């Protein structure tokens, strides 16, 4: 038996007025997910433990079977594992976004945050900007490392885990009240604006009408994580396919195989087919038992508040990932169980995450069901199946309960 998770980041949503009070999942043309839903258990899963913040860190740990209350020690330390930075016990890892602030004459505190992703800047351009920041601001206490696209890393030697606001939670707002209380971190952010706003890369971006990448933004602080190995825990050899350091870092921590897919970049235009084919290969040719395919695009489109592109991202996931994996597995004749779900909702109305339960499909090629339901939030709720503890989902997938 082979085991597959397809994780559509932020795919769940709420009814939207312009969509006749339907959700993007209800409106999207998803014949593959609907076919699977008919043959499967359909239900709702709570991936965010009560009282915890609805981050992709917490939710994906849960879907991989790690109780966030035990294993969560911050987002950035997980990403550091993927970036290859070995944290000392006294190091604090902090996510260092490159964001777009309003390019006006107002003091830093009065600027508005326009985009947490600087127009999904390329890693190549971002690396040049992080280098410019590093030259001016790095010292014995603060070190800067390049991650992927707008997502980078700062290590604060002998620092503290302090509460910092994720930039995607405050899009369109004046930043003053959301800046770090820690003065040193705030100063680094302020100085970064002076370094970056008129950097040649940003002058070019302005000319091209692209969002400028003119400030760093700190959030997601934490300490070195300690995950039990996935194989020890589940007696399954597991592999991870994702564009983002968060998921790749969780996999490094869990001693899973990390598969790099060329062209997988976390955007709407990622290499969907490449991810699907890499998953099939690791299961059928390399004989791994479990693969986790993470697709970031629906979440990013949610953060952008772009309903048409969120629908597109869901349709791409359906036709260019799930369909390919399903058909290749069927053709191989190997039995498999397939779990399709988001980690959390990223509703268009709020452009950030919520803690609501998410719809899941659990398919078993050896026990096909014959139901009438389709894959969406409303029908998943109507079935009455509920998984209260998201971190038990893998046990369901492995049929271990
Ligand atoms: O990587 C990030 O900065 C965030 C926002 O895009 O991702 P997610 O919403 O998946 O936590």
UniProtKB/TrEMBL annotation:
InterPro entries: Alkaline_phosphatase_core_sf, ApgAM_prokaryotes, Metalloenzyme, Pglycerate_mutase_ApgM. GO terms for biological process: glycolytic process. The keyword Oxidoreductase does not apply. GO terms for molecular function: metal ion binding; phosphoglycerate mutase activity. Keywords: Glycolysis, Isomerase. Pathway: Carbohydrate degradation. It holds the Pfam family PhosphMutase. Residues 1-369 form the Metalloenzyme domain. It catalyses: (2R)-2-phosphoglycerate = (2R)-3-phosphoglycerate. It comes from the Bacteria. Catalyzes the interconversion of 2-phosphoglycerate and 3-phosphoglycerate. Belongs to the BPG-independent phosphoglycerate mutase family. A-PGAM subfamily. PANTHER family: 2,3-BISPHOSPHOGLYCERATE-INDEPENDENT PHOSPHOGLYCERATE MUTASE (PTHR31209:SF4), COFACTOR-INDEPENDENT PHOSPHOGLYCERATE MUTASE (PTHR31209). This is Cofactor-independent phosphoglycerate mutase. It comes from Mobilitalea sibirica.
């Amino acid at each position: 038996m082979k085991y597959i998770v397809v994780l559509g980041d932020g795919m769940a949503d709420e009814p939207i007025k312009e969509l006749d009070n339907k959700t993007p999942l209800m409106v999207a043309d998803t014949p593959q997910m609907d076919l699977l839903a008919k043959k499967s258990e359909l239900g709702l899963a709570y991936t965010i433990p009560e009282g915890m913040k609805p981050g992709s860190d917490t939710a994906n740990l849960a879907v991989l079977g790690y109780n966030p209350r035990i294993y969560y020690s911050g987002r950035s330390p997980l990403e550091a594992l993927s970036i290859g930075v070995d944290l000392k016990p006294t190091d604090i890892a902090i996510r260092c976004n490159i964001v777009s602030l309003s390019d006006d004459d107002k003091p830093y505190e009065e600027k508005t945050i326009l985009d947490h992703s600087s127009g999904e800047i390329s890693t190549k351009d971002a690396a040049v900007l992080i280098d410019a920041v590093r030259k001016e601001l790095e010292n014995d206490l603060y070190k800067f490392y390049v991650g992927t696209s707008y997502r980078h890393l700062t290590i604060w030697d002998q620092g503290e885990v302090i509460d910092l606001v994720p930039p995607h939670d405050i899009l369109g707002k004046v930043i003053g009240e959301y800046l770090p209380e820690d003065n040193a971190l705030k100063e680094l952010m302020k100085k970064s604006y002076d370094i970056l706003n008129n950097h040649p890369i940003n002058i070019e971006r302005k000319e091209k009408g692209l969002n400028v990448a003119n400030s760093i933004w700190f959030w997601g602080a934490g300490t070195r994580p300690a995950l039990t190995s996935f194989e020890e825990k589940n007696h399954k050899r597991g592999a991870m396919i994702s564009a983002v350091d968060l998921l790749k870092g969780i996999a490094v921590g869990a001693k899973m195989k990390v598969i790099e897919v060329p062209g997988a970049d976390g955007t709407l235009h990622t290499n969907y087919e490449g991810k699907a084919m890499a998953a099939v290969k690791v299961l059928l040719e390399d004989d791994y038992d479990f693969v986790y395919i993470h697709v970031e695009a629906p979440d990013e489109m949610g953060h952008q508040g772009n309903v048409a592109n969120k629908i597109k991202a869901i349709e791409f996931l359906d036709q260019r990932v799930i369909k390919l994996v399903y058909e290749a597995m069927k053709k191989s004749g190997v039995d498999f169980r397939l779990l399709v779900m988001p980690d959390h909702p990223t509703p268009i109305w709020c452009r950030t995450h919520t803690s609501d339960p998410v719809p899941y499909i659990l398919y078993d090629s050896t026990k096909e069901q014959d139901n009438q339901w389709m894959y969406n939030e409303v029908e998943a709720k109507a079935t009455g199946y509920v998984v209260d503890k998201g971190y038990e989902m893998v046990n369901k997938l492995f049929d271990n309960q």
